[in-house]
Amino acid sequence: MVVGIQAYNGFSKEKTKLIAKVITDFYDVRTILLNEKTINKKAFINVKSPRYRADSIILFQRKSIPDSLDFIIGLTAKDISTTKYEKGRKMKLPAYKYQDWGVMGLGYCPGNSCVVSTYRIKHKDKNIALIRLKKVAVHEFGHNLGLPHCPDKKCVMTDAVESVATIDNAKLALCKICKTKLN
């Protein structure tokens, strides 16, 4: 299994290498650093604030994934968003809040592409920000591998439930149930 790590718009080379190593070590896959790209202009919106649609970035990544890769993880420092839905694909209400919902990352379950942003996981302590980045990348790629959200609040696959504090409380580890699902 080969995973391409795609940095966008000047995303830190050090962080890109870090995420490649984390994904390799965590999931026992091979990672390849791809040449930096600019996010496709068609993903840009300005509904609530200027940002990029995560679902559009994923679509562009999926369309351009080389045959040599099985998956692609996009990394950006830009703000990203998606539409937040309830179970059954009905938009969560109120619509003005959830039609353009800012997210830390997005990955389809299953899928071959996900995107992670550092925009919403910043912290004055650089180490906390890096741990958050690792957890979000592992979480979104976990969705690509077929892992759904987990009810175990310590599992990296727990739902962030609209709060970065949830990520801080989770471990950079899968619970026993999620580990079993992967094997």
UniProtKB/TrEMBL annotation:
Its cofactor is Zn(2+). Coiled coil: none annotated. One of its GO terms (molecular function) is metal ion binding. It comes from the Bacteria. Keywords: Hydrolase, Metal-binding, Metalloprotease, Protease, Zinc. This is M54 archaelysin family metalloprotease. GO terms for biological process: proteolysis. The keyword GTP-binding does not apply.
